[in-house]
Write a structure and sequence with these properties.
This protein folds into four domains: about 130 residues, no CATH class; about 120 residues, D-amino Acid Aminotransferase, Chain A, domain 1; about 150 residues, no CATH class; about 140 residues, Rossmann fold (3-Layer(aba) Sandwich). Helix content is about 45%, strand content about 15%. It is built from 24 helices and 15 strands. The N and C termini lie far apart (about 105 Å).
Length: about 650
C-alpha cells in the first residue's frame, strides 16, 4: 500500500485524527529511493535466505534479473566471524541502492556496500515476528557489524508543542503558498531543523547542501518493539519536488509495449494449453526443487514456442524504460544451463523478452493486469494455468476437467474474441424445461476413440452429457467417404455403448451455428460447443455476427466455444480400412463400430472405383475430343 501524504491524511481523516497522531511516539527517516532487501540466516546451517518486498528471492528471480546479485554476494561472503555473530532468529530489513549513474547523480555518495539497515525482526521457530527492533543505537551497532549504512533516522521520540505547531503550519498551508515560500530554500531541510536542531549532515551527503526530497513518519500507538503495535505511516514530500513529479507524470505517455506483452502472454497461454498432461509427463522433468523443475519446463516450452512462432515475432520491438536496459536488470545467463536457450536469447532481443515473459508470468498468481483488454476473466484463466503447472511439476494428479482451457475465452492465439454470448432475446414458447448439454461437432468419418476422449473432456468440464452433431456432405469425398446411413448407424451404436456420456445424435447437411442451434430446440440448451482448431475461427466469427445483428436466438449466458485437441486422425483410420488392417482398426475405434469394418471397406472401395471410372470417362472424353479435333484438321487439309 502506498504511504499517504501528511496533508492528505488531514484532508481525509480530519483535525482530531491528525492531532492524535502527532502526540504518539514518532520515528522520522529521510526518504531514500531504494529497494527493499531482507535476509535471515538458516537455522540449520550458516547459509542465508534473501527477500524482496513481496517474497523470498528464489532461483527464478535470480535468473530473471541480476539486480540483487551484489547485495546477495556481499552477505554470502561476510567474514566467518561476522556470520557466527548473526542470530538465526534475526530478520534484517534493509534498503538497497544499486551502483548506477542515476543513483550517483541523486546522492552525493552511495551507502556502504549499497545497503542501509532499517529494522530487525526477532522471529520465533514458526517464523512469526515476536519483536521489532528500531532503536537507533541497536541498529547503529548492527550496521557496524554488517558493514552497511546506519539507518537515516532524523528524529526519534515525542514531538514538543513547538514541533507540532510547525508541522501543523505545513499541513494547513495551501500548496501554492508553500511553493512560493520555499522557492529559494529547502522545505524538507526546514522541517528537519525543526525536528532536530543538531542535524547538520544529510544522509549520504558530506554536508546538507544537496536537496532532500522527503521524509517518512512512523507513528507508534503502543510499544514500538511490539510486533502487534499499531504503526501509522505518513510522508512529507518537498512541495517543489512534488510539483515537478506531478508535471512529469502528466506528460507521461502510455507504454504500448505493455499491450504487446499481454498479447504475447495470450499466445503463450494458448500454446501451453495445447499440451496435455500425458505429453508433459513424457518430458520426464526432474529437479531437486520446484524452481529447478519449473525452469526446465519453461525451457522446453520456449524452444517449441519460438520454433512455431518465429516468423510471427521477427522484427517486433518491445520498448522498455531506460532503467530496465541497464545490465543489472538483464537475465543472469550463468544460471541458464541450456546452450540452445542461450543461443536463441543472443540471437534476438525479442526472443530474450519473450523468454522473460514466459519465465515470469507462469510461476505465480496475479491479482490483476495493467492492460485493459486482459480482463479479470483472463487473469483467472492465467491463475488456473499457473495452478495446473504447479500440480504437474509437483507430480500431483491433474484433473484436466477442473481447468477450463484458455480457448474457452479466446479463439486463435494472439486474438481476443469473447466467446460468452448473452443479451439475446428469450424464447417464450411454452415448452417443457429444456436440458442443458454440451455439443461436439464433427464429420465422424468414422467415429473413433479419439472422439470418445473428446466427449469425456467436454463432460468433465461441467458434468453435462454431450450431443453429437455430424455434418454430412451431399457427395462422398476422400475425406468423407461414408454415407449418411452408415454414419447414423455408427453413431447410434456408439450412443448405446456410451449412454452415460452421449445424450443424443443429430445429423445435419449444414454446419452453421444457426442450423446447429435450431436442431437442438426446444429440447436442449447448449452450454459448451466443442470443435477443432480449424473450425474455431469460423464459429467465433459467426457468433460475433449474431451478436452484432441481435439475432433472436436463445443462447445461454454461460455458452462458450471450446477448442478440442485432435486426439486421433480420421485419415489414419480410413487408411487402415483401405489397407485391410482390421486389428489396428479394432484397437482405435469403439467396440460397437469394429463390426462395421467390412461395410466401411466396401464404401471406400466403391468411392475409389467411382473415382477411377470418372477418371476413365474423363480420359475417354479427352481422347474423343482429340480424335475429333484431328479429324477436323484432316478435313480442312483436304
Amino acid at each position: 500500500m502506498a504511504i499517504r501524504h501528511l496533508k492528505d491524511i488531514h484532508d481525509k481523516l480530519g483535525d482530531e485524527f491528525l492531532n492524535k497522531l502527532l502526540n504518539e511516539y514518532l520515528i522520522v527517516n529521510e526518504k531514500v529511493n531504494g529497494n527493499f532487501f531482507g535476509f535471515k540466516k538458516d537455522i540449520t546451517n550458516d547459509s542465508f535466505k534473501f527477500f524482496n518486498k513481496k517474497s523470498e528471492i528464489g532461483y527464478i528471480d535470480k535468473v530473471l534479473s541480476r539486480f540483487y546479485n551484489e547485495p546477495i554476494d556481499y552477505i554470502e561472503n561476510l567474514p566467518n566471524e561476522t556470520i557466527q555473530k548473526i542470530p538465526s532468529n534475526f530478520y534484517f530489513g534493509l534498503e538497497y541502492i544499486s551502483n548506477t549513474t542515476s543513483n550517483m547523480d541523486e546522492y552525493g555518495r552511495l551507502p556502504k556496500n549499497g545497503l542501509i539497515l532499517n529494522f530487525i525482526h526477532e522471529i520465533d521457530e514458526n517464523g512469526d515476528v515476536v519483536k521489532t527492533i528500531q532503536d537507533k543505537d541497536i541498529l547503529d551497532e548492527w550496521s557496524s557489524v554488517l558493514g552497511v549504512e546506519k539507518p537515516p533516522i532524523v528524529f526519534e521520540g515525542k514531538l514538543t508543542d513547538e514541533q507540532r505547531g510547525e508541522i501543523l503550519d505545513f499541513v494547513y498551508s495551501p500548496v501554492e503558498k508553500l511553493i512560493e515560500n520555499f522557492k529559494t530554500k529547502s522545505f524538507i531541510k526546514h522541517i528537519i531543523s525543526v525536528l532536530n536542531k543538531n542535524f547538520n549532515d544529510s544522509f549520504l551527503e558530506n554536508s546538507i547542501i544537496r536537496d532532500i526530497n522527503g521524509l517518512i513518519f512512523r507513528f507508534y500507538e503502543d510499544d514500538r518493539e511490539d510486533p502487534k503495535a499499531k504503526v501509522f505511516l505518513a510522508k512529507v514530500i518537498d512541495p517543489i519536488f512534488k510539483n515537478k513529479i506531478d508535471a512529469s507524470l502528466g506528460d507521461k505517455k502510455q507504454n504500448k509495449s505493455q499491450d504487446y506483452t499481454w498479447l504475447i502472454v495470450i499466445d503463450l497461454m494458448n500454446f501451453i494449453e495445447s499440451y496435455d498432461v500425458k505429453t508433459i509427463d513424457g518430458w520426464k522433468i526432474t529437479g531437486t526443487d520446484y524452481q529447478e523443475r519449473y525452469l526446465k519446463f519453461i525451457n522446453i516450452i520456449f524452444k517449441s514456442f519460438i520454433d512455431k512462432f518465429k516468423d510471427k515475432y521477427e522484427g517486433l520491438e518491445l520498448n522498455k524504460p531506460d532503467f530496465l536496459n541497464s545490465e543489472e536488470f538483464d537475465l543472469n545467463m550463468d544460471l541458464i544451463n541450456d546452450p540452445y536457450i542461450l543461443d536463441l536469447i543472443k540471437e534476438s532481443d525479442t526472443y530474450k523478452e519473450i523468454y522473460k515473459i514466459l519465465l515470469n508470468f507462469f510461476r505465480k498468481k496475479r491479482k490483476k493486469s495493467n492492460s485493459p483488454f486482459f480482463d479479470s476473466n483472463m487473469v483467472l484463466q492465467l491463475n488456473l494455468l499457473v495452478d495446473k503447472i504447479k500440480k504437474m511439476l509437483f507430480k500431483e494428479k491433474v484433473f484436466e476437467g477442473f481447468f477450463p482451457t484458455f480457448n474457452e475465452y479466446v479463439g486463435e492465439a494472439g486474438e481476443f474474441i469473447p466467446m460468452t454470448i448473452d443479451g439475446f432475446e428469450k424464447n417464450n414458447r411454452s415448452i417443457a424445461k429444456p436440458k442443458k448439454v454440451n455439443i461436439l461437432i464433427g464429420s465422424f468419418q468414422p467415429i473413433n476413440l479419439g472422439h470418445i476422449k473428446a466427449i469425456e473432456k467436454l463432460k468433465s468440464k461441467n458434468n453435462l452429457p454431450v450431443v453429437l452433431v455430424s455434418i454430412i456432405k451431399d457427395t462422398p469425398t476422400d475425406s468423407s467417404p461414408f454415407s449418411e446411413n452408415s454414419v447414423r448407424k455408427m453413431l447410434n451404436s456408439v450412443e448405446q455403448e456410451y449412454g452415460k456420456l452421449i445424450e443424443k445424435v443429430i445429423l445435419l447437411k449444414k454446419g452453421s451455428i444457426d442450423d446447429v442451434l435450431g436442431s437442438l430446440k426446444p429440447a436442449y440448451i447448449p452450454i459448451l460447443w466443442g470443435t477443432n482448431r480449424n473450425k474455431m475461427d469460423k464459429y467465433a466469427l459467426q457468433l460475433n455476427y449474431l451478436k452484432k445483428r441481435h439475432a433472436s436466438i436463445d443462447i445461454n449466458k454461460d455458452f462458450k466455444l471450446i477448442e478440442i485437441p485432435k486426439y486421433q486422425s480420421n485419415t489414419e483410420i480410413r487408411k487402415l480400412i483401405k489397407d485391410q488392417n482390421y486389428a489396428e482398426f479394432k484397437r482405435l475405434v469403439p467396440k460397437s463400430v469394429a463390426s462395421d469394418f467390412y461395410n466401411l471397406k466396401k464404401e471406400i472401395d466403391g468411392l475409389n472405383e467411382s473415382s477411377l471410372n470418372k477418371i476413365q470417362v474423363d480420359s475417354d472424353i479427352n481422347n474423343l475430343n482429340e480424335s475429333t479435333t484431328e479429324t477436323n484438321v484432316e478435313k480442312e487439309k483436304q
